[in-house]
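pls design
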């Protein structure tokens, strides 16, 4: 039987104000960040701040208190987000965010459990976990930051690196075909699938807040600039240049078959909400099984 845990007291943190905070006061969103963990390690022009902020704004939009939300991440630049958020978070080993989140979501169903991790972490070493959690329809919200490479470890190629793109491990151009993440998530069984870029900050907030309300496995891909690892070898300029590119090349196509959601930085980036359907969750199936057969209870 799934255990329901009574509400706890809201999060309270003891803060030592920085000089700037003492002068100008605390930003209202600062309570969502762990005092002492900022400044962050992300490079100038990186898209990760946009994603972290979108997550916080979506929590606020849905009035989800910090003690009712949990973020699990794997390894990599995106994985640092779990360490910055002022709530119960867990920074797992490489590729293992989804199994940890699965366990947490089953034992604490009242929590909003989000996996915030990178394309390399979720689709390379964590790929099997992701497809099976989607197939089972585990109640986990996945936000996958796709910057086309392993940024933190030196800009190596990842399962999302575009064909012919240059990375530190493909200096003459990548010969492997990349995954289409939204297509893979949808084919695996996700009940909600969307893609945005860091340029579409407001759409992203809306999408995350929609996913919060959707029982089951939801998947949101966010295309972000990685000026250090990916832009440099591919001569894509700074973070701002990438945002201009996102603005120029993106097309919104809600409801499109995710197989047709093209992602080509030179041609077009198809964004939007592609899948939104209802289906019993993994926990629903277990509840039904346990309640329906008295011998199993
Ligand atoms: S290496 Fe790339 S992804 Fe990592 S913090 Fe720097 S810009 Fe962001």
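designed seq:
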């Amino acid at each position: 039987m799934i255990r329901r845990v009574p509400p706890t007291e809201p999060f309270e943190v003891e803060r030592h104000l920085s000089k700037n905070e003492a002068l100008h006061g605390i930003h209202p969103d600062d309570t969502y960040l762990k005092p002492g963990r900022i400044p962050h390690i992300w490079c100038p022009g990186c898209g990760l701040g946009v994603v972290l902020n979108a997550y916080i704004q979506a929590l606020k939009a849905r009035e989800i208190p910090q003690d009712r939300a949990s973020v699990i991440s794997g390894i990599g630049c995106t994985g640092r987000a779990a360490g910055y958020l002022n709530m119960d978070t867990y920074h797992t080993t490489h590729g293992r965010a989804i199994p940890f989140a699965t366990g947490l979501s089953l034992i604490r169903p009242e929590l909003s459990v989000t996996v915030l991790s990178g394309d390399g972490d979720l689709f390379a070493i964590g790929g099997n976990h992701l497809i099976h959690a989607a197939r089972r329809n585990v109640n986990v919200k996945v936000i996958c930051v796709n910057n086309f490479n392993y940024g933190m470890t030196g800009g190596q190629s990842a399962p999302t690196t575009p064909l012919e793109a240059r990375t530190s491990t493909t200096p003459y151009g990548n010969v492997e075909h990349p995954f289409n993440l939204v297509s893979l998530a949808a084919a695996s069984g996700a009940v909600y699938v969307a893609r945005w870029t860091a340029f579409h900050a407001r759409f992203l907030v809306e999408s995350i807040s929609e996913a919060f309300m959707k029982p089951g496995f939801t998947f949101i891909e966010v295309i972000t600039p990685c000026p250090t690892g990916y832009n440099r070898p591919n001569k894509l300029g700074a973070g701002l240049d990438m945002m201009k590119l996102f603005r120029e090349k993106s097309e919104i196509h809600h409801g499109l078959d995710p197989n047709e959601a093209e992602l080509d930085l030179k041609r077009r980036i198809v964004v939007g909400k592609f899948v939104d359907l209802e289906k019993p969750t993994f926990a629903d199936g277990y509840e039904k099984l346990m309640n329906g057969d008295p011998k199993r209870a």
